[in-house]
Structures are given as structure tokens and as C-alpha cells.
Amino acid sequence: MANKTATTAKAVDALIETASDADKPLFVAEMEGFKKIFNTFVEHQRSIEWEKIKPPSNELVIPSTNLQSPSDGELSNLLNKLCVLKLNGGLGTTMGCTGPKSVIEVRGDLTFLDLTVQQIEHLNKKHNSSVPLILMNSFNTHDDTQKIIEKYKSNSHVTVHTFNQSRYPRIFKETLLPVPANFKGKLSDWYPPGHGDVFEAFKNSGLLAEMIKQGKEYVFISNVDNLGATVDLEILYHMEKHKAEYIMEVTDKTRADVKGGTLIDYEGKATLLEIAQVPSAHVEEFKSIKKFKIFNTNNLWVNLKAIERVIADDLLKDMDIIVNPKVVDGKPVLQLERAAGAAIQYFKGGIGVNVKRSRFLPVKSTSDLFIVQSNLYSLDNGSLIMNPKTAFAAVPLVKLGDEFKKVSDFLKRFQTSLDILELDHLTVSGDVTFGGDVVLKGTVIIVANHGSRIDIPSGSVLENKVITGHLRILDH
Q: Which residue has the higher pLDDT, 410 or 55?
């Protein structure tokens, strides 16, 4: 295997030589990072020993109800030590959109980014603080994002910084050699290596040092599409009070979360276990909520100087790797990725905090969009607030078919948002449209068979209903 490492390293060095003098410093840093992840993949990839896995102790995962609130006098000073970093590397392609996912309109004409800026602006105004927003883009989203954030310079009082996630070369599955032939290459020759790259990329950009110079001590990291990931003052206060270098927000698993990474006790350390690391014989056990009751929300709180130390000591080189197979131009290739949560074991005092489900509200599909646009939520200064009249503690399970997959198609199929305060489960498949003021309760299943169409008329109240076949009722 040592020969593989040396051969690929030599090919990467040749890639570096094709970069211009202006591009070379950052590219060298990125390729050094790639060499480390490749070396770990080939020679040092850790294999999880199932019998060593233990559920996290009460000291490793504490309930959010045990946290304390800072006093009014401490708030401003505490917030002035904070920066907020949103992971903004994803495109909206899975929802039929072009460009960064963060500019999809999720409530009225407000995008993910609009809501994030509103939240921080309100926080700063309320507490007389200066929390900045940092966006980690990818080479897929950077240019578009730079244009979009121009509007915040004149219309908001939030300072917005951006930096780029690393750009790593895909490797051929058979030879493990890099796909691109030169620095530029084709776009499909490269990939952003997962959000686990956030620490190295943050440092390489110079922004980590800049934030520390400005007196910032903590960063709150979350996915830009998680609408529940707002600044939690109690977690921030706990971090400062107990000198925790790393806090991962976890929440209780539901039937929709069985594949989510979980926090475990592994050889005495808090460790993230992803489904990709689980031996096939134990996958069903991993999915069970009896043994693994919590999952990682990817809301992470990290000490900035600890990030500097961990990188300087080269501790992240052995972070667990997720191997993501792809096919490019008909040839099988590999992407070597890491999850940001996997870094917890390298920080001092790393713990999990079990938070309310409302702090995990991702929009990965139009099924999720259906929920956040409904009357389950109202909007308050960029934050979604759960309607107190909802009948269930958890959000309903919603599965919309392929006809709803693209945002543009999804919007055409609803006259208005639906009343789903008493909805538990919804499945819709086929050519189905909804009129205005429709109410859904309990379990509702609507299936239009191939070649058929179902129109749910305005004012309908569907409770524990199964509708199939063909249905068109004209409003009078």
C-alpha cells in the first residue's frame, strides 16, 4: 500500500506544478490536506470494533434541560465572543433548482440566507452585540453566493464573511490516481470533501486567525438548510462556564432518523458513528432506536483557539473517512470525505447536548419544504416558531412523490399551504393537486395511478383517508 501512497502523492505534486503562482499557495495547502486523507484511507483507516461501542454516559451527553441561562449582564459580552458559520457548499439540484441551495425561497419570498441574516441581525440588535456570519462555500456555490450577499451590505447590520471549502481531486477506483490532469481540469474531476473539511478550510482562508484577532472565542457551525439551527444562549453559556472545547447537539431519534450518525462512547471518548462505518451485520442494530437513541444534528459549537491547536498538532489527520463512490464519464471514482462531527474526539471536554427536536429542521426535499411552509410554523425575526396548537410533539412524516420533487412542480400543485396541525402521516403519489384551505388530519394517503389524476377540492377536510384512482371535482 505504501507504493500506492507514494505514486498518488507524486501525481498530486505534478498537479500542483500546473497551478499559477497566484493560485499555488492555497492549492498547495489543499493538496497537503488531500494527501493526508488519502494516506489515512490507504494505510491507517480505522475499523470500528463493534464490541467496544458503548452508549454515551450521562457525562458525555447531557439534557438541554440541565443547562442554565446567562444573566442579562453577561449576554452582550458572551455574544461578542461568538461567530456563526453556516455550511453553504450545497447546490439545490436535488430539488430541481440551479445555484446554491441557500437561495431557495422557503417562507414567502425569504431564502435560507435571508432567514439566517434576519436571525443574527435581531440577536445583535436585541443584545447590543456584533455576531458576524461566516459562510463556507464550495467551488460550486462561491461565485453565485458572492453576488447574492451584496444585498446584505446595504440592507442589514450583519457583517458577512465567506471562504471556500477545499477542492480535492476525485480518484479512480481501480488505480487510486487523481482524475484531473491539471489544476483547472473539468469541474467533474473535483469535489468538495464534506463538511469535515470546515476546520482546515477555515484556517487556510485566514478567517480563523482574523476571528481570534477580533476577540472571538467560539464558533457555532450548522447546515444552512437547517432552519432550527439558531443561536442557543444556554449552550454558549455552558461552553464558556465549563471550558468545553466542542459541543455537539444531538436529539432523540424518530422513525425518520434511523440512518443519522450517532454519538457513542468508544474507548472512553465521545465519538461519532456514521452508518457508513457500521459493519453490514450490524446495520439493523444501528438503525434501532433501542440501543442508539440519539443522532447528530450537525449543530456544532467549537472553541476557536482549540481549532488552531488541533490543526497545529495535526490531530485531524486520522479523522474517520467516508468513502463516497461515484461514476464520472462512465468510470468508477471515489470521493474521500469527512464529517465535521467526527472531530469531537480530538477536542478536550467534547460532549453532546440532547436538544429539543425543534433545533433540527432541515429542508432536504420538497417534502420538508411542505412542512416548513405550513401552518405548523410562524415566522419571528427569521426563526420558525412551532404552532402551539399542533396535535403532536414531532412533525408529521410526509412523503411526496416524484411529481412534487422539483420546487417549481411542487408549487404548482398547491393553491395555498395546507392546514396540517393534526396531521401525523401524509403520502402523496402521482398526479395530485390541492385546492385552497384543505385540512389534513391523522393519516392521509393519496395515490393517483398511472394515467389518472386526483384533484382535492378547496375546503376539503381529509381525516384518516385513503384516496386512490381518479378524482376530479370542480369547484362551484
A: 410
Which pLDDT belongs to residue 465? 94
Residue 429 confidence class, pLDDT cut points 50, 70, 90:
very high
Count of positions (residues) in the chain: 476
Do the Cβ atoms of 317 and 199 come closer than 8 Å? no
Q: How far apart are CA 87 and CA 362, in angstroms?
A: 13
> Using 50, 70 and 90 to split pLDDT, how confident is the model at 97?
confident
The pTM of this model reads 0.93
**Domain limits for position 448:** 366-472
Domain end point (choices 359, 385, 411): 359
**Strand spans (E) along 37-194:** 53-54, 61-63, 82-88, 105-107, 110-111, 133-137, 160-164, 168-169, 171-172, 190-191
Which H or E element spans position 273? strand 269-273
E strands in 329-366: 331-337, 351-354
Residues 96 and 237 in one domain: yes
For 281, residues 6+ apart whose C-beta sits below 8 A from its C-beta are none
What is the total count of domains within the chain? Answer: 2
Q: Do residues 193 and 60 both lie within one domain?
A: yes
Phi-psi category of 408—alpha, beta or left, where left has phi over 0 and alpha has psi -120 to 50? Answer: alpha
For residues 345 and 385, membership in a common domain is answered with no
The tens digit of pLDDT for each residue in 148-199 reads 899 998 778 899 999 999 999 999 999 999 999 999 888 899 999 989 999 9
> Residue 376: helix, strand or coil by DSSP?
coil
Contact by Cβ (8 Å): 196, 68: no
CA distance linking residue 4 with residue 1, whole number of Å: 5
Q: Are 302 and 310 in contact (CB under 8 A)?
A: no
CA distance linking residue 370 with residue 389, whole number of Å: 18
Closest-CA residue to 119 (of 338, 457, 359): 359
Average pLDDT in the chain: 91
Confidence at residue 413, expressed as pLDDT on a 0 to 100 scale = 95
pLDDT score for 475: 46
